[in-house]
Automatic annotation (TrEMBL):
GO terms for molecular function: hydrolase activity. GO terms for cellular component: membrane. It comes from the Archaea. Residues 24-271 form the AB hydrolase-1 domain. It comes from Natronobacterium lacisalsi AJ5. Keywords: Hydrolase. InterPro entries: AB_hydrolase_1, AB_hydrolase_fold, AB_hydrolase_sf. This is Alpha/beta hydrolase. It holds the Pfam family Abhydrolase_6. The keyword tRNA processing does not apply.
Length: 283
């Protein structure tokens, strides 16, 4: 486990490294933390330099002095982490493989947009381009923001109850269990949400809602998009769009799993990821 200070002096980013080899960097979902990748760390650490991180506002990184977060800021931090990994190794590191879930998938997409050919591969789990996962007309999004209602819920009930209300609204709209089909996974996710303060929850929600996704046209990084069969249909459509837009994209669905597909079906997720990574190694 290690940390390094943010360039803006607002705090320090926590990260953990296991194993040796090509960097395989995992970026967690909103209000989760690096622990959500435990099944993948255990599986891949024999063959890769597996890296987990806690984004600003999450886990061991915790709160920072920034008044506002953005997906772009999180991508800045990912780029800084990759530089730190190279400094830690005291050598030029191989091109990394990036794996992001949900919010983390947005962070990885932003990195690919900036660096269309500087990653060896990308795995996007529970991938979406925006929240809500629909294209809203320019100028409408600000007027439709649920942030005031989220802020009220946070002040009255706290992060866990607010997160539950978001889950209920998605289930009511889609009929899907969505987050997870496994009670233990759902409970672990709620525990992580409970570690996030009201202020940090609000900043993360704001970052998700305000993100204006870039086009990934021209991205040459081989990209695998993975969804669970209980994923919200609009999210799946956005993932299919991602896979169709990048030069070398593919999309697949794992049954008996929800948004947290890497935890609901860890063995299956690891298997499809291993196969994908084997194809990259053969290039």
């Amino acid at each position: 486990m290690a940390t390094f200070p943010f360039d803006d002096g607002s705090g320090s980013l926590w990260y953990d490294v296991r194993g040796d080899g090509r960097p395989l960097v995992f970026v967690h979902g909103g209000w989760m933390n690096g622990r959500s990748w435990k099944p993948q760390v255990e599986h891949f650490a024999d063959d890769y330099r597996v890296v987990t991180m806690d984004l600003r506002g999450h886990g061991n990184t915790g709160s920072t002095d920034r008044d506002r977060y953005s997906i772009e800021l999180f991508a800045d931090d990912l780029e800084a982490l990759l530089g730190q990994l190279e400094a830690d190794a005291d050598a030029e590191a191989p091109e990394p493989i990036l794996c992001g879930l949900s919010l983390g998938s947005m962070v990885v997409q932003e990195y690919l947009h900036r660096n269309p050919d500087r990653a060896a591969g990308a795995i996007l789990a529970g991938a979406l381009r925006s929240m809500p996962p629909v294209d809203l007309p320019t100028g409408i999004k600000g007027f439709a923001s649920p942030l005031p209602a989220v802020s009220t819920s946070l002040s009255m009930a706290g992060p866990r109850a607010t997160f539950r209300s978001l889950l209920y609204s998605i289930r009511a709209t889609t009929g899907q269990r969505w987050l997870s089909v496994d009670p233990a996974t759902q409970s672990s996710a709620m525990e992580a949400v409970g570690e996030v303060s009201n202020a940090e929850f609000r900043k993360v929600f704001d970052a998700l809602f305000r993100y204006d996704p870039p086009s990934l046209s021209g991205v040459s990084t081989p990209t695998l998009v993975v969804h669970g069969e209980q994923e919200a249909p609009p999210v799946v459509r956005q993932g299919e769009r991602i896979a169709a837009t990048v030069d070398d994209g593919r999309h697949l669905t794992l049954d008996r799993s929800g948004h947290l597909v890497n935890q609901d079906r860890p063995r299956a997720f690891n298997d499809v990821s291993t196969k994908f990574l084997g194809g990259i190694a053969a290039l």
